[in-house]
Every structure is written in C-alpha cells, then in structure tokens.
Predict the 3D structure of the following.
Amino acid sequence: MPRRHGAPPLSGAGALDCAASYTRGVPHDRFARLRARTPVVWQDGRMAGRPGAWAVLRYADVHRALTRPGLFGPQGDGVLHGPVIGDVPDGARPGERPPGAALIDMDPPARAMLGRIPPREPADFVADVARDLPETLRNTLSGGLYALLRHPEQYARLRAERSDEGLVDSAVEEMLRWWTPVLQVWRTVRRGTVAGGVPLLAGERVTLWLVSANHDDEVFPEPERFVPERFALGARPHLCFGSGYRACLGARLTRVHLRALLVALLEHPRPLRLAGEPVPVRSSARHGFERLPVRWAP
C-alpha cells in the first residue's frame, strides 16, 4: 500500500478482488461498509495475482473517473464490456465474419430461445437456452432473468402491466443496474488528482467498481430491491455500460436482447421458476452463472 499522507488504512478491501468471494454472489454488504468508511481504498492485488490499485466504490467518484479520460486513462483489463462489434482480423475481407465469431442478431429470437425450455422438465438457462450467445450477453440475460426469479411479486406485476411500454423500458434498466454483468473496469491515473478525499498520483492504477456504484444507496435508495419503475421515476443513469466516450459500444445491442427476453417472458402463458440452486461464476470481474436451472410454473 502506498504510504503517504491522506491514504486510508488498509481494510478488508483486498478480498473484493478474490474470485472466491463471489461464489455465493456479490458481497454487497462489504461494498456498503467500505463505501461508508473508505470509499477509495487500496487493494494490494495479491489475492488476484496482479499489481495493486485504488478501489473506487461510490457512484460519484466512479462516474467522475469514467467521464474524465484526461485524468483516468483506459487500460486493457481483459474484460469484455459488451459484445465485440466490427472486429476484423488481418487478411479478412470486408464484411466477412471471422471463423467462430458469434452472429449477434439485432432482432433477437427470444421466443425461440424460451422454446428450448421443455413444458414440464427443468432446463439450465445458461447451457440450454442462452448457449449460443457471447459470454457477457449471456451473463446479462441470465442476470435479468434472475432479478425476476428473485422478485416474484414484481415479476407478476410486470406480467399484469406488460402493455405499459415505459414500465418495461424502466424494468430493463433496473435489471442492468441490479445485476451489473461487468463488476469492475480499470483505469490509470494520468495526472495527480483526488478521489474520495484520497490523493492519487500519476501512473497509479484504479479499479472502478461498477457494481458498487450501481448499489450506492446515496443514488439508488434501497439498492438491493428490484424496483421496475425506478428509472421511469427519474433515477440517475446506472453505470452498467460505463459513461462518456468510453461507454460500452454494445450497450444498445444488449438492451435490445434484454428487452426482447423480458417481453417474451411476460407474454408467455406461464411464468418461469427456479428449479434448483444457481451456481455463480467464480470471478471478481464477470457477473454471471455457471448454472441457472429453471422450469415453467404448473
């Protein structure tokens, strides 16, 4: 940890970057305690096997870093923040799809996907239903579905009010906020600045915890609740796709797919239910499931 005036004491923040901490889901209680006490705190990186960095946890500080590339420059972190669009390898002809590349449909066949779930038998949403999708998009759809499964009363309400386009649009944004499929992104400090009362020096690394910012109760009251109308009532934009000129290029496509899935679920004659214990992905960067068993209600 840097030893200099103004640096907060070392806390339990190091565990946030440990993949094992996420085997039972995001530790939102730990994020909440840190936001209240040390909203910018040093992580030594040993538990993740990489260099140390300043963890930035509050919405205001994360938003500022995302929208000021002159202060916080992007760096490759190995995390896809959405489907890659338009990448063409050397030697490929214009318009040619690279071998093995996933074809991403802007008119997604959500109803056909749900048709992969047998009428009376359970299925794994990850392996059986969304298996053809890129990982980040698959994680997003799984997380959006899980929001409904964890909040059956809101699921029933959305089914009853599915003709309310504004409510459906807001529910899509709330799914993204509540789940947040990319947990963190990395930046490098380009020139000295201050975040959360902590001086940051040029060349130091920072971790912007999108999932913590999206559950900051100073911005989103009762952040653990899934509130479909939250964004229809004027909530501030979530940071699921970042913000500013470095915002995720796949944001529109992801919303299209998530909305299509939601509409197909709401229009289906029967709601989905959990059919077993979900198994989260073991990762401190990607938020998804290894297994999400579901079945249609009787």
